Automatic annotation (TrEMBL):
This is TonB-dependent receptor. It comes from the Bacteria. Transmembrane segments: none annotated. Residues 279-357 form the TonB-dependent receptor plug domain. One of its GO terms (cellular component) is cell outer membrane. GO terms for molecular function: siderophore uptake transmembrane transporter activity. The keyword 4Fe-4S does not apply. It is found in: Cell outer membrane. Belongs to the TonB-dependent receptor family. It comes from Spongiivirga citrea. The keyword Transport applies. It is a multi-pass membrane protein.
Length: 923
C-alpha cells in the first residue's frame, strides 16, 4: 500500500484500469496505432491497472505482433525509443515513470545522512548501475530555475557521466549561435558552441545547474537532470545589450587571440547606422572605411587592397565568384543588404582554401532562412526599394530566403550638372534565393542562387548592359565531433553587351562573357587541443568568350567578328595546421599547390624571342585541339602566420603569403568599368605572382571596450599586367602585342582605433600605403617612364576614415562618416610640338601628377521604432546627407582645346550635398 501511495504522490498519475497475472504469456497485435491507443487496447485485453501522466505519452505510432510474450517484454517494446520506464508494483498494477526508474530499496545509511544531489549513491544494482537520489533540501534551493530531464534511466547503463549534445539557436532569427558558453560552474565543466551552433558536454548523473553566456544573447540558467545520453537545444533570445551595440558588436578579443593578420569580419548590421550615398546599406563601402581597402575614386567600381589592382580580389557570395559586385558605376553594391549575413575579408594571411588572386578574398555569406517563423524585411528609399522574405518549408528543418531589389534611378543622372546626361537613363535589379535544410545532426545542405542586371545609357545612341549570375550548392557532413567535411559546387557567369543604335548603317551589337564552374572538397579535423587541420582539393574550369560584334540589321555595314573562345583549368590541393605551441605561441601554417592549364581548342601565336611582339615578329600560329593542353603554370603557395600573446589583451603577429593569379582584367581606364574584359594566361601572357610580408601589434583596453592595432606590410609582385599607351583592348585578336608585364611593389602601415561600447562608438582608421609599377625593357616601345618605378593609378599615400555613432537613446542616434584621401595619380599634357606639319601633344611621365585631395563628410540621423515585442513590424528610419559640406571632389581631370589653348577641366560625381530618407521595417 505504501508503494502504491508513493507512486501516486510522486508521479501525479492518470490511471487506466486493468488487471492480469504479469507472468502470463500474452498474444496481441498493434497495427499503426498511437502509443496511447496501444495501452488502451492492452487494457481491454488484460486485467491490469497502469498509473501515468497522459502528457508523457509521445505521439509514437506502434505496429507490432506479439504471439507469446510476457507483459514486461511487451511494455519494453512499446516504450523503446521513448523516455518512459515502467515498474511492476504487484500482479495487477503497473507504474510508468518518465526518465527515471523506481527502485525497490535504498542504499545503506540513506536515512542516516544527507545525500548530495550531484553524487551518485554507491549502491550497485545489476549492470553496475547506481540509483539516483536527490535530497529535498537541494531541490528547494534550485526550484526557481526551469528543470529539464534528459535521457532515460537504464538498469543496464554504466558510468557516472553522460553526454549532452545539441544546438544553440537564436529565437529571433533561427540562426545558430556561435561561441556560446555552456557552463556548470560548481563542477567547473563547460563547452562552447562551434560555427554551426553545436555543442557537446559531459555531465554527471543527477542535477546540474547549467548557465549560458554569450555577447548579445540573454544569460539563462536551468536545472538539467541527466539520466542518460541525450540531446537538448537551447532556444535563446537576443539581449537588450545587443541592440545598444549593434553597430560595432563583434568578437572583440579575436583581433588579439587569432594568428591571422590583416583579416576583418563585417556583420551586415554594421552598415545600418553608417550614412552612405542615397541611404543605401552597403557592406562593401563599410569595408573601404577600414585600413588597407580603398577605391580609385567616388563612383569607381572595384577595390584596391594593400596596393593591389582591382582584379586581384576574389569576391565570393556563398562560395561562388562575383566578377562585378557593384551597380551603377560602383555607387551601389550588387548585394542585397537584407539577405547578406556577413563578409570575412582576408588581406593578410589568406587561408589555404582560397587561391587564384593576389591581394584579398571577400568571402560574403548570405543569411540562413528561419526554420521556425515567417519573417521579412523591406525598405523604401529615393532610388531603390528592397524586400526579403524568410519562409519555413519544413518546421525546424528547412527554410527558404528570397530577396529582390529594384532601382528607379533615372532622376539621378538627370540631376547631375552635365547637359550630356540629361537624356540618360540607368536602372538595375538583383534577386537572390537560398534554401537551407538540416537533414539530421550530421548533415545539412544549402542551395544559393543570384542574378543581377544593369542597363544604362549615357548617350542617346548606346545602351550598355551587364549581368552577374551564380549558383552554388553546399553539403556539410559531420563524421564525428572532431571531423567535418564541406563539398561545394558553384557556377558563375558575367557578361556585358553594348547595343549601338543610331538608325544609321553603323549599328551593331557587341558582347563579352566569362563563365567558371568550381568544385571544392574541404575537411576540418580537430586532432587534439593543440592541432586543428584544414585540408582538401579544389578545381575550376574557365570558359571565356573574349568578344563578339555583329550588325544589328541587314543593312548595317559592320563586319561580323568573334574572338575565339578561351578555356582553362585551375586546381589546387591544400593543407593547413593551426598549431598551439603554448598558451602564448600559436602558429597557423599552410601549404597550397596551385596548378593551371590553358586548354584548346585554340590558335596560339608564337613570336621571336627577345624582341617586341608584333605582326613583323610573328613566327607561326600553332593550332591546339579541344581540351589539348597549351601551357601549364603553377607552384607551391605558402600561407604562414604566428601569434605571440604577451598578455591576454596584447599580442604581436607576423605572416608570409605567396600566391599565383591566372586570370587578368584588361582595362586601360583609371578604374575598372562594366565593359572591361578578362584574359586567361596562355603561351604569351604569364600568370601574376606576389609575395606579401606582414607584421602587426594588437592591444585591447578596458575589458575589450577599446581596441587598437598597427600593421605593416610589404608586397612584391611580378608579371603584373599593364598596357602600351593607346592600346586597343576590345575585340583585339592579338592582344598580347598591346600588353606589357612588369614588376609591382607595395608597402604601408595600417592603424585602427576602435571603441566598441558606450553611447559613443565607432572607429578611426588611417592607412599609409604606396603602390608602384615598373615596366622596363631594352626596347623603347615596351618601356614606361624610362624603366623606373612609377605610382600606380590607385596610389594614395594617405587615407583617413572616421566613423562614429552616438546613441541619444535606444531609439535615436546620430552617425557621421568622414573620409580624407590623397588625390590619385594622373598623366597631364605638358606641351605640344609640330612634326611634319602636324601638331602633337606632349604628355608628362605616366602618373607624374595628382588630382586634388579628396575629403567628404556625411551625416545620418537614425530613428528606430519602439522595442515592444508584440507588434506587427519593427521600423527604422534613416535621414542622411551625403557630402554635407558640398565639396566638389574631382573624380578625374581632363583637357580640352579651346582657341588653340589646352585647358584642364575637373569632373565630379557628387558636387553638392545629397539628402535622402529611407524607411525600413522588419516583421
Amino acid at each position: 500500500m505504501k508503494k502504491f501511495l508513493f507512486a501516486i504522490l510522486c508521479c501525479g498519475f492518470f490511471s487506466v484500469s486493468f488487471s492480469q497475472d504479469q507472468n502470463k504469456n500474452i498474444a496481441i497485435s498493434f497495427e499503426n496505432e498511437t502509443l496511447y491507443n496501444a495501452l488502451i487496447k492492452l487494457e481491454a485485453q488484460q486485467n491490469l491497472q497502469v498509473y501515468f501522466a497522459k502528457e508523457w505519452i509521445p505521439e509514437k505510432m506502434i505496429s507490432a505482433n506479439f504471439a507469446d510474450a510476457s507483459l514486461a517484454d511487451i511494455l519494453a517494446e512499446l516504450f523503446k525509443d521513448t523516455l518512459l520506464n515502467f515498474y511492476v508494483l504487484d500482479d495487477s498494477t503497473i507504474v510508468l515513470t518518465r526518465n527515471n526508474i523506481i527502485y525497490d530499496s535504498v542504499p545503506d545509511g540513506f536515512f542516516g545522512k544527507e545525500i548530495d544531489t550531484t553524487v551518485v549513491v554507491k549502491k550497485q544494482r545489476k549492470g553496475n548501475v547506481s540509483p539516483i537520489f536527490f535530497s529535498g533540501q537541494k531541490t528547494v534551493k534550485t526550484k526557481s530555475f526551469p528543470t529539464v530531464r534528459i535521457g532515460r534511466e537504464s538498469a543496464q547503463a554504466s558510468g557516472e557521466t553522460f553526454e549532452l549534445r545539441g544546438k544553440a539557436i537564436n529565437l529571433r532569427t533561427g540562426n545558430p549561435i556561435t561561441n556560446l558558453t555552456i557552463l556548470e560552474k560548481a563542477k567547473n565543466i563547460f563547452a562552447v558552441t562551434n560555427d554551426e551552433g553545436e555543442y557537446r558536454i559531459e555531465l554527471p548523473v543527477g542535477v546540474n545547474l547549467i548557465e549560458t553566456k554569450s555577447l548579445g544573447i540573454e544569460d539563462t540558467k536551468r536545472n538539467i537532470v541527466i539520466y542518460n545520453n541525450g540531446t537538448f537545444d537551447f532556444m535563446l533570445d537576443e539581449s537588450i545589450e545587443q541592440l545598444d551595440e549593434v553597430v560595432l558588436e563583434a568578437n572583440v578579443a579575436k583581433n588579439v587571440e587569432e594568428a591571422s593578420t590583416g583579416n576583418t569580419k563585417i556583420d551586415n548590421e554594421e552598415s545600418k547606422n553608417i550614412p552612405l550615398v542615397l541611404g543605401e546599406r552597403n557592406i562593401l563601402k563599410v569595408a573601404t572605411s577600414l585600413p588597407g581597402i580603398t577605391t580609385a575614386g567616388e563612383g569607381a567600381a572595384g577595390y584596391n587592397v594593400r596596393g593591389g589592382k582591382a582584379d586581384q580580389n576574389l569576391i565570393l557570395l556563398d562560395q561562388a565568384v562575383i566578377y562585378n559586385p557593384t551597380h551603377f558605376f560602383g555607387i551601389f553594391e550588387a548585394l542585397n543588404p537584407f539577405t547578406t549575413k556577413e563578409a570575412n575579408i582576408y588581406k593578410g594571411n589568406i587561408p589555404v582554401e582560397y587561391g587564384g588572386r593576389l591581394s584579398s578574398v571577400f568571402d560574403i555569406t548570405s543569411k540562413d532562412a528561419s526554420v521556425t517563423d515567417f519573417k521579412g524585411e523591406a525598405s523604401i528609399g529615393p532610388v531603390t526599394s528592397n524586400l526579403a522574405l524568410e519562409v519555413p518549408v519544413i518546421k525546424d528543418k528547412s527554410g527558404i530566403l528570397v530577396g529582390g531589389r529594384g532601382a528607379y534611378s533615372n532622376w539621378i543622372l538627370r540631376s547631375l550638372d552635365d547637359e550630356n546626361l540629361q537624356n540618360s537613363e540607368a536602372s538595375f535589379y538583383d534577386v537572390v534565393a537560398k534554401y537551407n535544410h538540416n537533414i539530421n545532426e550530421n548533415n545539412d545542405v544549402q542551395l544559393s542562387g543570384y542574378f543581377s542586371n544593369d542597363r544604362f545609357s549615357i548617350t542617346s545612341d548606346s545602351i550598355y548592359g551587364y549581368t552577374n549570375r551564380l549558383f552554388s550548392a553546399k553539403w556539410r557532413h559531420k563524421f564525428n565531433d572532431n571531423t567535418t567535411a564541406d563539398i561545394t559546387l558553384a557556377n558563375s557567369q558575367y557578361q556585358f553587351d553594348i547595343e549601338f543604335d543610331t538608325n544609321s548603317i553603323n549599328d551593331f551589337d557587341l558582347g563579352f562573357k566569362v563563365e567558371e564552374t568550381a568544385f571544392k572538397y574541404k575537411m576540418k579535423s580537430v586532432v587534439n587541443s593543440n592541432h586543428t587541420l584544414d585540408y582538401g582539393v579544389s578545381g575550376k574550369l574557365y570558359s571565356l568568350n573574349p568578344g563578339k560584334i555583329e550588325p544589328r540589321g541587314p543593312d548595317d555595314i559592320i563586319s561580323f567578328l568573334e574572338i575565339p573562345e578561351e578555356r582553362a583549368f585551375e586546381g589546387g590541393i591544400f593543407l593547413a595546421d593551426k598549431f598551439k605551441v603554448s598558451d602564448k605561441l600559436l602558429f597557423d601554417v599552410g601549404l597550397r599547390y596551385s596548378f593551371y592549364a590553358a586548354l584548346g581548342a585554340s590558335n596560339q601565336r608564337i613570336y621571336q624571342e627577345n624582341v617586341p611582339r608584333s605582326e613583323q615578329t610573328l613566327i607561326e600560329t600553332q593550332a591546339f585541339d579541344k581540351n589539348e593542353v597549351i601551357e601549364t603554370y603553377g607552384g607551391p603557395e605558402i600561407r604562414a602566420g604566428l601569434r605571440y600573446l604577451f598578455t591576454k589583451d596584447f599580442s604581436v603577429k607576423a605572416s608570409f603569403n605567396n600566391s599565383y593569379q591566372f586570370i587578368h582584367l584588361l582595362s586601360n581606364n583609371t578604374t575598372i568599368s562594366p565593359i572591361d574584359t578578362w584574359k586567361l594566361s596562355d603561351l604569351n601572357i604569364k600568370p601574376q605572382q606576389a609575395n606579401q610580408y606582414s607584421l602587426g601589434f594588437y592591444k585591447n583596453f578596458n575589458g575589450n571596450d577599446y581596441e587598437i592595432s598597427l600593421e605593416g606590410f610589404y608586397k612584391d609582385q611580378k608579371n603584373i599586367l599593364d598596357f602600351k599607351t593607346g592600346a586597343r583592348l576590345l575585340l583585339n585578336e592579338t592582344i598580347e602585342t598591346e600588353v606589357l608585364q612588369g614588376e609591382g611593389q607595395a608597402y604601408g602601415a595600417e592603424l585602427l582605433v576602435r571603441k566598441n561600447a558606450g553611447k559613443l562608438n565607432g572607429w578611426l582608421s588611417y592607412t599609409y600605403s604606396r603602390s608602384f609599377f615598373k615596366l622596363d625593357s631594352e626596347f623603347d616601345e615596351e618601356r614606361v617612364n624610362n624603366g623606373k618605378f612609377f605610382p600606380s593609378n590607385f596610389d594614395k599615400p594617405h587615407d583617413v576614415s572616421l566613423v562614429t555613432n552616438y546613441k541619444f537613446t535606444r531609439r535615436f542616434s546620430l552617425s557621421t562618416n568622414f573620409v580624407y584621401q590623397t588625390g590619385r595619380p594622373v598623366t597631364f599634357p605638358v606641351g605640344n610640338f609640330v612634326f611634319n606639319g602636324s601638331e602633337f601633344v606632349l604628355f608628362s611621365d605616366r602618373n607624374q601628377f595628382r588630382i586634388p585631395d579628396y575629403f567628404r563628410l556625411d551625416l545620418g540621423f537614425n530613428v528606430e521604432g519602439n522595442h515592444k515585442k508584440n507588434k506587427l513590424a519593427h521600423s527604422f528610419w534613416t535621414v542622411s546627407i551625403y557630402n554635407v559640406l558640398g565639396r566638389n571632389n574631382p573624380y578625374s581631370v581632363f583637357f580640352v582645346t579651346e582657341a588653340g589653348e589646352i585647358r584642364p577641366l575637373k569632373s565630379s560625381i557628387f558636387a553638392i550635398p545629397v539628402p535622402s530618407i529611407t524607411y525600413n521595417f522588419k516583421f
